[in-house]
Amino acid sequence: MNQTSPDVTCFTGDITDGLVEIFFTVNFFALNAIIGSVGLVVNVIKVIVFFQLGLNDSTNISFFVLSLADAGIGLLMLGFSVVFNPLFQQTISNIDVEFAISYYCVSWPYSVFSRVAALMTAVITVERFLCITFPLKVKEIMNPTITAITSITLTFLVLATVIPAFVATHLGPVFNEKLNETILGLVQTEYRVQLETFSYFFLAFFQILSIVVITVFTIALTHRFLQITSWRNQVSNKSGELSGKDKRLVKMVILLSISFLLFSIPAIVFIFFAEFQAGFTIIGACKNLYFIFSSFIFPTDAMNSIVSFFLLVHMSSKFQHVVNVMLRVVMRGKKNKRQTEE
């Protein structure tokens, strides 16, 4: 751990509680409300579309689970927005209560959905690389059964690593020395530090693992894609040429992976500080810096799920067709309702 003075490395004198409140209002309340609402809507649409397309295909299963995780991210972002709503703040009139509720009821559940989404993005990237590298054997390597088992296993693995953090603390009456009164807060168990450290470690591990896998296989996938679609290969070996559908799917996965990596930058910086900066915790000397960095993670994390929706609409004809059918049904229903009222 970095033992440098927190006043130097954490900008304690510059990052005041008032500045933290501004970041919380803008990022946790405003941005989370907007991005969370959009993310929840588009990902519920994605879940419905992939269910309609059928879960008898490994790619559809992977995107279905990814969409469920992204929908959970959108829902919990709305949870952050509610907790950090100025009206809610006035009601509870205590920022410590606000932190306790968001930390226990929203942050940890959000971490589950976020890591599942990251791991499923990695699975999709690896799966697409295998599809164009071993096209004849890929059905044996990544069939629907294996993909479903992999998705369920990863989900429960992430959930199991977060359970210790829930055991470490719980909401309850806590005496606040500043206010000299008992308020709602985080009641800590004897082994809180060890249990939360365990959860933090594995969540960081899953995030870093996802980033490494996605980076490596995106580079490999791009290289292989360019190799297969190059002019010389098309002339010398027509059998190695990808179909138009496969080309669009590979391009979409590459763009999806790049989007994930770009929007993961705040999380990477956060993990770096958490590992190497002393006091960079919710109750440490660097808590204000911790709060500001964490406020950037959630909006950027969810943006990737919104980007993936528009990539799917633009690059998948089947996905686009089902979305158009859904929109026509909704519009027809509204028109019929309007005519009935008239």
Automatic annotation (TrEMBL):
<feature type="transmembrane region" description="Helical">
    <location>
        <begin position="28"/>
        <end position="51"/>
    </location>
</feature>
<keyword id="KW-1133">Transmembrane helix</keyword>
<feature type="transmembrane region" description="Helical">
    <location>
        <begin position="146"/>
        <end position="167"/>
    </location>
</feature>
<feature type="transmembrane region" description="Helical">
    <location>
        <begin position="253"/>
        <end position="274"/>
    </location>
</feature>
<keyword id="KW-0472">Membrane</keyword>
<dbReference type="GO" id="GO:0016020">
    <property type="term" value="C:membrane"/>
</dbReference>
<dbReference type="GO" id="GO:0004930">
    <property type="term" value="F:G protein-coupled receptor activity"/>
</dbReference>
<feature type="transmembrane region" description="Helical">
    <location>
        <begin position="200"/>
        <end position="222"/>
    </location>
</feature>
<feature type="transmembrane region" description="Helical">
    <location>
        <begin position="289"/>
        <end position="313"/>
    </location>
</feature>
<dbReference type="InterPro" id="IPR052954">
    <property type="entry name" value="GPCR-Ligand_Int"/>
</dbReference>
<dbReference type="Pfam" id="PF00001">
    <property type="entry name" value="7tm_1"/>
</dbReference>
<dbReference type="InterPro" id="IPR017452">
    <property type="entry name" value="GPCR_Rhodpsn_7TM"/>
</dbReference>
<feature type="domain" description="G-protein coupled receptors family 1 profile">
    <location>
        <begin position="42"/>
        <end position="308"/>
    </location>
</feature>
<protein>
    <submittedName>
        <fullName>Uncharacterized protein LOC106054858</fullName>
    </submittedName>
</protein>
<feature type="transmembrane region" description="Helical">
    <location>
        <begin position="63"/>
        <end position="84"/>
    </location>
</feature>
<feature type="transmembrane region" description="Helical">
    <location>
        <begin position="112"/>
        <end position="134"/>
    </location>
</feature>
<keyword id="KW-0812">Transmembrane</keyword>
<dbReference type="InterPro" id="IPR000276">
    <property type="entry name" value="GPCR_Rhodpsn"/>
</dbReference>
